[in-house]
């Protein structure tokens, strides 16, 4: 073997296998080395080698060690045998054999890359035996071995593998002094400080990485955010303090300062210091001359996080700065979106006033920017607001038609066609409605989401008209990954339950027809009539499989016209049908009712906590957590 490769070549190859025992499994690492070893052995030696390796791979380290010791005695220059022996004795914790063996090999080797792994392993043996004095003495000898950056890198890597972090950090400082490079091994030092819980020092090391010519910001951010999080407030505050102090040490326009700003922004958001995050976004916008780009990105992020105050502040800053016209226009749309999102948290007159303010903002945008490329999206958002938020069907239809007239080929125009179909349905006009929706559901220029929405509405119209088989066929065509899929599933389950009941209940078909009549009244926004129809239906068909559906529908209608009475319906549904398809939704709505209408936070929290506990796979899990956290923090 040695004649074939040479001692140094064999050692380098076996050393790689040695390294892999600390990362990749050793049993996967040495196959090629074993092949080369076998090629240079006698038949008898090959047999011993194969048996030893089989025992090693099977985890029978005691028997494997006996064979490898014999092989080593025959060929002590084979470092493959050295590696296997120290691994076996290490697994068996046979320090009486391993320690003198390592000492002998250290004395025999001359190359640093051979000595260092053995020396560190020897220190680990002493540490395992609780002989810390000898462990420290063994490690201290390593410092004198390193001369070049590559030497230090080799030693530091081995110390890191064995988690000798404190000696490693001492060696890092020694290397920096000797080689006069303050940022040398910053990555390794930072990881060590994190492990030791010294987050201030870790952050200072990561800052050095930002000063490099080609900094890996993504890695720095992920590493810092791994310990500086909301769940560890002390570490988060300590990290922020270090970064804030470092701001003045970076040139204001440097790349490093801008990357530091990005990091600060994320940490301020984590700490819920949104003003601090805004100031950093404003700094980056100015220094990078983004003319609103950085601020707009930040504002939309805050809008998604429901931080409406700071989102408005950022959008307003874009407008006030007279930034790039495209960002000014989008900021004005953003301000209208803020008003709409704020309205979601309100009820009654306050909600309506906020929505009317948003409607006025869209109208002002149309007047100010009649040729804007964003106008199709503005028209669509405005029309939806009038339809769903303000129940102003005529205004919604007028805006949707304007969108179709001016921008017929645009994507928003396809959504406008579906909206006009909803308005037609709300007005009780079924003339040509199915044909219109079939066209929208298959329109090649419509997005998959819009086609799915049109298909669901088509299935709903077919249900209202008593075409149950056609409705089920249409529902089956809706892809499960679409937004409309959940509503489609709800309607499909309703139809399947009701139609299955017809096989054993002679009144089941009449129940389904009367149920659809109540749904028709609801679709036409005749809320009092719909509530009355559902109440009558519940009295008439108390054993129908659709009772839980009707309880939910009626309670939700009452939420609009008589909020105080809605709670009883939701509570009855949860009491009688805790496993209903509507149970988690009813529990969430009940929590909202207690939180916003009745101003009973304790009951609201109880609803959200029950939802988290009893319905762990609910679609409402995330909003329930958010509301629960908000209520707990305010109390």
General shape: elongated
Q: β content, as a range? A: under 5%
The number of distinct helices, counting runs of at least 4 residues, comes to 35
The assembly state of the depicted protein chains is: single chain
Summarize model confidence as the mean pLDDT. Answer: 90
Uncertain segments: 1-29
Helix content: over 70%
Q: How would you characterize this protein structure?
A:
The structure is a single chain. The protein has 635 residues and is an all-alpha fold. The chain has 35 helices and no strands. It has helices at 2-5, 7-20, 31-39, 43-57, 61-74, 79-92, 95-108, 112-128, 132-143, 149-161, 165-179, 186-196, 199-210, 217-227, 233-246, 255-270, 274-287, 293-304, 308-320, 325-343, 348-368, 375-389, 393-406, 411-426, 433-441, 448-464, 468-475, 485-501, 508-523, 527-540, 547-561, 563-576, 583-597, 601-614, 621-634.
Could you name the key traits of this structure?
single chain, 635 residues, mainly alpha, elongated, disordered N terminus
Q: In terms of topology, how is this protein built?
A:
Elements: H1 2-5, H2 7-20, H3 31-39, H4 43-57, H5 61-74, H6 79-92, H7 95-108, H8 112-128, H9 132-143, H10 149-161, H11 165-179, H12 186-196, H13 199-210, H14 217-227, H15 233-246, H16 255-270, H17 274-287, H18 293-304, H19 308-320, H20 325-343, H21 348-368, H22 375-389, H23 393-406, H24 411-426, H25 433-441, H26 448-464, H27 468-475, H28 485-501, H29 508-523, H30 527-540, H31 547-561, H32 563-576, H33 583-597, H34 601-614, H35 621-634
Helix pairs in contact: 4-5, 5-6, 6-7, 7-8, 8-9, 8-10, 10-11, 11-12, 12-13, 13-14, 13-15, 15-16, 16-17, 17-18, 18-19, 18-20, 19-20, 20-21, 21-22, 22-23, 22-24, 23-24, 24-25, 24-26, 25-26, 26-27, 26-28, 27-28, 28-29, 29-30, 30-31, 31-32, 32-33, 33-34, 34-35
């Amino acid at each position: 073997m040695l004649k074939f490769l040479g001692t140094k070549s064999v050692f380098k190859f076996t050393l790689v296998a040695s390294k892999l025992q600390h990362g990749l499994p050793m049993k996967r690492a040495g196959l090629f080395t074993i092949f080369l070893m076998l090629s240079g052995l006698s038949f008898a030696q090959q047999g011993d080698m194969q048996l030893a390796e089989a025992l090693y791979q099977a985890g029978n380290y005691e028997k494997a060690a006996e064979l490898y010791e014999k092989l080593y005695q025959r060929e002590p220059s084979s470092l493959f045998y050295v590696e296997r022996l120290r691994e076996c004795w290490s697994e068996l914790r046979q320090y009486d054999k391993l320690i003198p063996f390592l000492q002998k090999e250290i004395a025999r080797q001359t190359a640093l890359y051979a000595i260092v792994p053995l020396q560190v392993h020897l220190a680990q043996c002493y540490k395992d035996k609780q002989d810390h004095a000898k462990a420290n003495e063994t490690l201290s000898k390593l410092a004198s071995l390193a001369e070049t950056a590559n030497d230090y890198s080799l030693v530091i890597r081995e110390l890191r593998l064995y988690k000798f972090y404190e000696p490693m950090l001492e060696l890092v400082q020694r290397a920096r002094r000797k080689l006069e490079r303050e940022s040398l091994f910053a990555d390794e030092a930072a990881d060590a400080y994190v492990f030791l819980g010294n987050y201030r020092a870790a952050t200072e090391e990561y800052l050095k990485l930002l000063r490099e010519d080609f900094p890996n910001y993504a890695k720095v951010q992920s590493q810092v955010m791994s310990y500086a999080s909301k769940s560890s407030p002390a570490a988060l505050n300590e990290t922020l303090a270090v970064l804030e102090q470092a701001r003045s040490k970076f040139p204001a326009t440097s790349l490093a300062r801008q990357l530091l700003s990005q990091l600060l922004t994320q940490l301020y958001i984590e700490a819920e210091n949104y003003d601090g995050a805004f100031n950093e976004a404003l700094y980056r916008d100015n220094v990078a001359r983004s003319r609103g780009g950085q601020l707009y990105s930040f504002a939309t992020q805050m809008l998604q996080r429901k931080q409406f105050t700071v989102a408005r502040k950022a959008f307003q800053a874009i407008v006030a700065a007279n930034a790039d016209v495209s960002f000014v226009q989008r900021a004005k749309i953003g301000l209208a979106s803020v008003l709409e999102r704020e309205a979601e948290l309100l009820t009654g007159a306050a909600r309506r006033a906020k929505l009317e303010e948003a409607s006025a903002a869209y109208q002002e945008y149309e007047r100010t920017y009649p040729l804007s490329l964003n106008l199709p999206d503005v028209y669509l958002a405005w029309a939806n607001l009038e339809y769903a938020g303000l129940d102003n069907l005529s205004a919604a239809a007028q805006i949707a038609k304007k969108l179709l007239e001016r921008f017929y080929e645009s994507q928003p125009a396809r959504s406008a066609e579906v909206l006009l179909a909803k308005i037609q349905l709300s007005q009780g006009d079924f003339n040509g409605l199915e044909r219109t929706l079939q066209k929208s559901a298959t329109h090649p220029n419509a997005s998959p989401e819009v086609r799915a929405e049109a298909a669901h509405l088509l299935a709903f119209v077919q249900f209202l008209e008593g075409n149950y088989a056609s409705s089920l066929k249409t529902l089956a065509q809706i892809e499960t990954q679409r937004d409309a899929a959940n509503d489609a599933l709800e309607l499909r389950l309703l139809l399947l339950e009701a139609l299955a009941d017809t096989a054993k209940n002679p009144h089941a078909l009449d129940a389904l027809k009367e149920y659809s009549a109540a749904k028709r009244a609801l679709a036409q926004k005749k809320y009092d009539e719909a509530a009355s129809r559902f109440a009558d239906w519940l009295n008439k068909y108390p054993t129908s499989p659709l009772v839980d559906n009707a309880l939910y529908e009626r309670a939700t209608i009452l939420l609009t016209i008589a909020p105080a009475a809605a709670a009883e319906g939701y509570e009855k549904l949860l009491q009688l049908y805790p496993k209903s398809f509507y149970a988690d939704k009813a529990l969430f709505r009940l929590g909202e009712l207690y939180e916003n209408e009745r101003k009973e936070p304790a009951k609201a929290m109880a609803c959200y906590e029950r939802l988290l506990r009893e319905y762990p796979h609910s679609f409402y899990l995330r909003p329930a957590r958010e509301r629960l956290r908000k209520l707990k923090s305010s109390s």
